[in-house]
Amino acid sequence: MKHILFTLLFIVVFVSVSVAEEASRPVYVIQIDDKIINPIIQEYITSAIQEAEAKNAECLIIELDTPGGLLTSTRTIVKEIMNAHVPIVTYITPSGSRAGSAGVFITLASHIAAMAPSTNIGAAHPVNLEGKGKSISEIVYRIIKYLEHKKDGTEKQGHDDKDIEPEEDSEILSEKILNDTVAWVKTIARNRGRNVEWAEDAVRKSISQTEKEAIDLSIIDIIAQDSNKLLEQINGKSVTLSNGTTKTLNCSPADIHYVKLSTRQKILLAISHPNIAYILMMLGFYGLLFEITHPGIGFPGIAGAMCLILAFVALSTLPINYAGLLLIILGIILFIAELNVVSYGLLTLGGLVSMFLGSLMLIDSPYSLMRVSLEIIFPLVLSTAAIIVFLVGAVIKAHRGKSLVGKEGLIGATGIAESVIDPVGTVTIHGEIWQARSKQPIDKGDTVKIMDVKHLELFVERTRTH
Questions:
Q1: Per-residue pLDDT tens for 118-138?
Q2: Is the dihedral of CA 387, 393, 395, 398 positive or negative?
Q3: Number of C-alpha atoms within 13 angstroms, CB side, residue 264?
Q4: Cβ proximity of 107 and 64 under 8 Å
Q5: Which backbone phi and psi does 27 adopt, to 5 degrees?
Q6: Is 14's pLDDT higher than 50?
């Protein structure tokens, strides 16, 4: 009897521990609150998915509120979600939020899609940087052509705008992008069992639906009043992961872990807004243009190069890790230039800013070979700055110091008269005997000061008698 009771007690304890372990599996949550989808948000979501997978999380909830963003970043995010080994739940919240443009693709790609009351989803038609008119490729093409014309001097003769049009018509290019995006969103919707026709219309016609319309049209799965209600409603739901396994969610009770944007990501996010990116690109262009037309100033070219690199990062044209490396190289070049060019500290300042921003981009880089620790960056940047300041100070001191050789080294120096000088004689200075000339008689042994040097003859005055 005792053995039976002991066995039953062991089974109860084992089951209790197993249930407790199962219940303690964390639910990860990230918050995209009115943020543009760009390379920084892409990194934020990607790293959160990787962390949730590593911690064997129950699921990852993306609390989403976005007007849209870059198509390239959206494609990467969708790819990560579609291939995630942890269930992804996209929740459009709080009330008044929307999942516009890029948010549509992220929501459709998620294993479970939910919306809070008074939210909307849709308007996913792809647009360029300005919404209308010229695309980024056209702007860059025009800048390059303008510089070529300016270099050749053809701007003085006047040229037709047709001469600097891109080879491919912008309308054809836009149509290609649209058709490709439609095919992509239809594939996503079909894979997740959502409304394929609506997904196409959201891209082609920019239609948008409320949460009630979205649930009726099979765009989303759940309408949840708040985060707690969401956890209650997804509890027990089954989803199929990319590896083919089916997972049943156990979110009651939930051990919630919020993944926040890092300080680095917040700083980079501030410069990654499309409007800021456009301004940076124009400032970069004007800086380089001013440097080309007024060579030798230096600062406009430095600022222009930095602005262009930051703009290319914000536009997802240049990967963050490569941009960081380029900025660090630019900083090193500016430090070296400071030793050879008198810039009154501008090159050093530009180098410090460039190296700091570049190092900032390599912190927590998704590429392990390019990852740098913050504890290493600050000491290195500060020590580099100290070394450069010391070297520049030494160079300035050397230039300002009095020369010890040649004519400059003799004028102002004092010596002793070796003979009577009336008006010519000899003096000893720096251990050497020189012929000297004076306007007034000087006795042997008097102290003299050299006033000038001409043709290996010193012109002296008496400063003290012996």
A1: 999 999 988 765 444 444 445
A2: negative
A3: 20
A4: yes
A5: -110, 120
A6: no
What is the reported pLDDT for 264? Answer: 80
Instruction: Choose among 345, 344, 376, 347: nearest CA to 359.
Output: 376
**Which residues fall within 8 angstroms of residue 335, CB to CB, at 6 or more apart?**
347, 348, 351, 384, 388
Q: How far is CA 418 from CA 61, 407, 438, 448, in A?
A: 95, 20, 13, 11
Separation between Cα atoms, residue 462 and residue 326, nearest integer Å: 63
Name residue 125's amino acid.
Answer: H
pLDDT in tens, 353-384: 887 778 777 765 544 444 455 556 567 666 76
Token duo for residue 344: 């009154």
**The domain at 22-124+196-261 falls in which architecture?**
Alpha-Beta Complex (3.90)
Residue 282, token pair as written in the block: 């124009």
Q: Please give the Cα distance from 362 to 356 (Å, whole number).
A: 10
Q: What's the CA angle centered on 276, arms 270 and 281, to 5 degrees?
A: 130
At 221-274, the pLDDT tens digits run 999 999 999 999 999 999 999 888 999 999 878 889 999 998 888 888 887 777
- The CATH code of domain 406-464 reads 2.40.50.140
Q: How far is CA 6 from CA 15, 17, 240, in A?
A: 14, 16, 40
Q: Supply the pLDDT for residue 365.
A: 53
CB atoms within 10 A of CB 390: 10
Q: Which amino acid is at 34?
A: D
Cβ(234)–Cβ(249) under 8 Å? yes
Q: Output the DSSP codes for 322-346.
A: HHHHHHHHHHHHHHHHHTTS--TTH
Closest CA to 100 of 64, 63, 67, 65: 67
